[in-house]
Amino acid sequence: MDIRKLRLDEKSLGTLSDERDEYERDYARLIQSPAFRRMQGKSQVFGAGSGDYYRTRLTHSLEVSQIAREVARRLGKKYKFLARKEHPGLILDPAVVEIAALAHDLGHPPFGHKGEEVLNHMLIEEYGIPYEGNAQNFRILMFLEKRAGSGSGLDLTAAVLLAVNKYPFGLDEPGRLKGVYGTEWGEIEQLRRSWKMPIGCSTLEAQLMDLCDDIAYSTHDIEDGIRAGKIQMNRTFFEDNRLIDHLVQEIVDDKGNNGVGWDKVDIPAMVKRVLASYLAQWEALYVSCDHEPSRTRREMKARWVSLFASKVGIIEDSTSNWKKVTFVEDGHQDIELLRTMEILKKLAWVTLIKDFRVQRLQMRSEIMIRRLWDSFKVPESGRLIIPPDWIENYELHKNKWSWPRFVADYISGMTDAYAEKVYAELYASKSGSIYEMD
After folding, report:
1. What is the pTM assigned to this prediction?
2. pLDDT along the chain (438 residues), means of 10
3. Pairing with 307, which of 184, 216, 300, 353 sits 20 to 30 Å away (CA)?
């Protein structure tokens, strides 16, 4: 039996009637799931519905999957050890990486990172349990999504589940901020043990998916920011000391980014150098694109995606005795390019998320989520205003599904528009017909 294609619920392979490959079956189950469709209504940076141009969680995930699949295909040709399949975690199957990329943001609630932050704060403050988007991915894939004949959610293959698992830890462990909820971690840990995965290490497929997510974030979100006028392509904007100071501060405050050696460089000088180079590239492309901003934006994005993707490679990680997917130059990790990508990610964060208009929308989002939470959190009254199919499902599983987690599952599954609709029904003076379908 191929342990990469093991399914937690379908113990015996070869019992299904059609001729599809196992990963093709995973792909179909995922893209036909309601959770996948709902990502079209969830914010990436700008609120879903802000305009026809801007990315949502769905389009972002599609773009990550395209980058990841192409890079996986290239690496498969470059690194001969991959063909030997010496270890189930040291394989790069383009189909597996693509599916993992499509699934990596399923667990994000409405209203982007603000929604995740608010739900986590309320759950911890009132019940001492966390909400975390990566952990919610597994709750959706392994429990909440329903497929005929399965008691394990979508019942995806082990390879796909572990390719989504970029934080291979249980959130019950002290001090863990990211990982997998205890309800799902037992089975994920079981798969990892059967694969003999080193503790704390992710599969190559999970590492590649994660890096391609960063590539998309540092290029596509900037494209959206330029289109929205939040990032102004001129020297006044790029040489503004307030912008530079904000970027430096974000880098210094990001404790999860110490692996690229910021303590060894002059951070303000590097930020200025990267911004100056980025603007110079824009100015040259703007001329070659006949002064058309739209063409220039697309070309800038394409060139940076191509640069980052072409530099992805695999090296030995001496600290973990495992292999690492990262940017590579001459056989060594390209720290300079990693830092450059981080600066571009911070540029998107500072100019988009920190924009005062976006902050107003996020404050509005926080108010809505908090009031929805208050409406549902008391079981006796909350069960009267939650859809009956959700309540029926809760009754079937309440021995392993606490009411607070149930409410968090319900709210986090909402699209931005549906959250606003329910909020309006509960708190606005007029909300339309009560016979609109949920």
Report:
1. 0.93
2. 86 56 95 94 65 78 97 97 96 98 94 91 95 96 82 89 97 92 95 96 98 94 89 95 94 84 94 97 96 95 97 95 97 96 93 77 92 97 95 92 96 94 87 60
3. 353
Q: Does one domain contain both 311 and 370?
A: no
Q: Which of 311, 330, 354 is the last residue of a domain?
A: 354
> What are the DSSP calls for 94-138, one per residue?
HHHHHHHHHHTTTT--TTHHHHHHHHHHHHHHHHS----HHHHHH
Which domain does 312 fall in, by range?
Answer: 229-354
Is residue 233 situated within a structural domain? yes
Residues 246 and 345 in one domain: yes
Instruction: Answer yes or no: are the C-beta atoms of 314 and 89 closer than 8 Å.
Output: no
Residue where one domain finishes, among candidates 303, 333, 354: 354
Please state, as a whole number, how many other Cβ atoms lie within 10 Å of the Cβ of residue 113.
16
Which whole-number Å values give the CA distances from 279 to 234, 291, 310, in the listed order?
7, 14, 22
Identify which of 206, 214, 215, 210 has the alpha carbon closest to the alpha carbon of residue 96.
206
Residue in the block written with tokens 């796909």: 160
